[in-house]
Specification:
Blueprint lengths: L1 E5 L5 H11 L19 H9 L3 E7 L2 E11 L2 E9 L8 H11 L4 E7 L3 H9 L3 E2 L2 H11 L4 H5 L1 E6 L9
């Protein structure tokens, strides 16, 4: 039996483990100065939750195998920290989580990911997101995220529904 459900306080260790196991895929594709061990320290996870990231999990046979966060910021919802355990990938878990989070939102949804993570970009595009221009990307990352400039340089943003080219949010 599989289900999408909100993550609880007692799921934090599992969230942490899933994020760090799945993030290994980024080790060789993101800039070396942006990789650290663990990829997401426990304190960073707690900071993200305190900042309003609500995690949802995909549970199979009583165990979380995937997680994805949603965070309302100003006038958009951000998809944050979308990870599926390596042994459970390519089974529709990410799409199920994303679809569930989208069903909860009535606002534009943005997601940021590493520019070199072609598999992540492909996943979001297959699920109706569109890449924003390089110029818009920088403005969006500085408006809706709190990340260093070096990460901005190495990232992309995708939007659903797509943004128009009028320059507004």
């Amino acid at each position: 039996m599989s289900t999408v459900r909100p993550c609880l306080d007692e799921d934090r260790a599992a969230i942490h483990a899933i994020v760090n196991a799945a993030a290994e895929a980024y080790r060789s594709v993101i800039p070396a100065d942006r990789w650290h061990e663990p990829y997401m320290p426990r304190r960073e996870l707690e900071t993200e939750i305190d900042a309003g990231v609500a995690f949802w999990g995909y549970e199979t046979d009583g165990a979380l195998v995937g997680v994805m966060g949603i965070q309302p910021v100003l006038d958009v919802d951000l998809i944050r920290h979308a990870y599926v355990l390596p042994g459970s990938q390519r089974r529709g878990i990410g799409a199920a989580l994303l679809g569930h989070l989208e069903s909860m939102s009535r606002r534009r949804t943005l997601v940021g990911t590493w520019a070199a993570a072609d598999w992540a970009i492909r996943f979001y595009r297959q699920n109706g997101f569109e890449l924003v221009s390089e110029e818009r990307k920088t403005m969006l990352l500085k408006t809706y995220w709190t990340i260093p400039d070096r990460q901005i340089d190495a990232s992309v943003v995708l939007a659903k529904p797509p943004l128009n080219d009028s320059g507004g949010r």
